C-alpha cells in the first residue's frame, strides 16, 4: 500500500459510525425509513404525472425530472450506506468508490441546475400567466431540462475523469460514502487544480443558480403583491414558501460544504451536512413540491376512485 499512484489502493474503508455501534443501529433505521419514503413518494409522483393528462404541463414535466433525479441520487449512495450499517468493517472497492463519487456529484449538480429552471418556470407562470403556455412550450422545456443534465456532466464527470488522484496507501474515508471532499483529503498529489475546479464549479452550479432563484422569487413576490385576489396571493405565497424551504436547505448545505474552508475539525460536520442535502432533501421534495398540491391530490383521487382526498 505504499505506491505513489491510486493503483496501490484497491479498496477503501468507510469509517462512518462504525466506532459507535449503538448509534449505528439508529442510523440504519433512519436511513431505511427515509430511503423508502423517498422511493415511494417519487415513484408515486412519476406515476400520477404519467397517469393524469391534467398534469401534462411544464411545471409537472420539471417535477417529473426532479422525482426521477431524486430516485437516482439517493440510490447512488444510500443503499450502500444502509448495508454498511450491518457490517463491522464497511469496505468499498476503488472502482465502486470512484463511480459512486462521480454519479453522486453529477446528480447533485443536475439538481442544482434543475431547481433554477423550475424557479424560472414558476416566475413565468405567475408573472406572465397569459403568455405562459407559449413561452414555456414543450420544446423549450425539453431543452432546459436537457441542458441541465448535459451541463452537469461536462462540469463534473469530465473533469473528474481527466484529473487522476494519487492516494499513496491512504484508504480510510471518514465518511458514510465516497463524497468528493472526503476522497480529496486522502490524496497526496498536488490538489491546486482540483481546488480551482471546485471553486469554479461551485460558483457556476451553486452561487449563480441560487442568486438566479432568489431573483426569480423576488419577481414572483412583486407579481403576487399586485394580485387582486386574496386567495390567489395566499396560494402563491404558500407555494413559494414551500419551494424556498427546500431550495434553502439544499443550496445552503451544499454551499456551506463546498465553499467553506476545510480542516480536520470539519470532518464530522461534513457528514451531517452531506446527510441534509443527500438524504433529507430528496425525501422532502415529493412532500413539499407535489403531494401537497391540489392538482396532484386530484390525480390521486382520480386514481383511487374516491370523491374526496383528505
TrEMBL record:
Domain G-protein coupled receptors family 1 profile per the UniProt entry, residue ranges: 41-289
Membrane topology classification: Multi-pass membrane protein
Main location: membrane
Localization in the cell: Cell membrane
Keyword hit for RNA-binding: no
Transmembrane stretches, start-end: 25-49, 61-83, 103-120, 140-161, 196-215, 236-260, 272-291
GO cellular component: plasma membrane
Gene3D superfamilies tied to this protein: Rhodopsin 7-helix transmembrane proteins
Family: Belongs to the G-protein coupled receptor 1 family.
Name this polypeptide is given: Olfactory receptor
Amino acid at each position: 500500500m505504499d505506491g505513489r499512484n491510486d493503483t496501490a489502493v484497491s479498496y477503501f474503508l468507510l469509517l462512518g459510525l462504525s466506532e459507535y455501534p449503538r448509534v449505528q443501529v439508529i442510523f440504519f433505521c433512519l436511513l431505511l425509513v427515509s430511503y423508502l419514503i423517498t422511493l415511494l413518494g417519487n415513484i408515486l409522483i412519476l406515476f400520477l404525472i404519467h397517469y393524469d393528462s391534467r398534469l401534462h404541463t411544464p411545471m409537472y414535466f420539471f417535477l417529473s425530472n426532479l422525482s426521477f433525479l431524486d430516485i437516482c441520487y439517493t440510490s447512488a449512495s444510500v443503499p450502500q450506506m444502509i448495508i454498511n450499517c450491518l457490517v463491522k468493517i464497511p469496505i468499498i472497492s476503488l472502482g465502486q468508490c470512484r463511480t459512486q463519487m462521480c454519479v453522486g456529484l453529477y446528480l447533485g449538480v443536475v439538481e442544482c441546475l434543475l431547481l433554477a429552471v423550475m424557479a424560472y418556470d414558476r416566475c413565468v407562470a405567475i408573472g406572465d400567466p397569459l403568455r405562459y403556455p407559449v413561452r414555456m412550450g414543450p420544446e423549450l422545456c425539453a431543452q432546459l431540462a436537457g441542458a441541465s443534465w448535459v451541463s452537469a456532466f461536462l462540469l463534473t464527470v469530465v473533469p473528474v475523469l481527466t484529473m487522476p488522484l494519487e492516494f499513496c496507501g491512504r484508504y480510510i474515508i471518514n465518511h458514510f460514502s465516497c463524497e468528493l471532499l472526503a476522497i480529496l483529503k486522502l490524496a497526496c498529489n498536488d490538489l491546486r487544480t482540483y481546488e480551482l475546479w471546485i471553486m469554479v464549479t461551485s460558483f457556476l452550479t451553486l452561487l449563480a443558480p441560487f442568486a438566479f432563484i432568489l431573483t426569480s422569487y423576488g419577481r414572483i413576490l412583486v407579481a403576487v403583491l399586485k394580485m387582486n385576489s386574496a386567495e390567489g396571493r395566499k396560494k402563491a405565497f404558500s407555494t413559494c414558501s414551500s419551494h424556498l424551504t427546500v431550495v434553502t436547505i439544499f443550496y445552503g448545505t451544499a454551499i456551506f460544504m463546498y465553499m467553506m474552508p476545510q480542516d480536520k475539525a470539519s470532518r464530522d460536520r461534513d457528514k451531517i451536512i452531506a446527510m441534509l442535502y443527500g438524504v433529507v432533501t430528496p425525501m422532502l421534495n415529493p412532500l413539499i413540491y407535489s403531494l401537497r398540491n391540489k392538482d396532484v391530490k386530484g390525480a390521486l383521487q382520480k386514481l383511487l376512485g374516491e370523491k374526496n382526498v383528505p
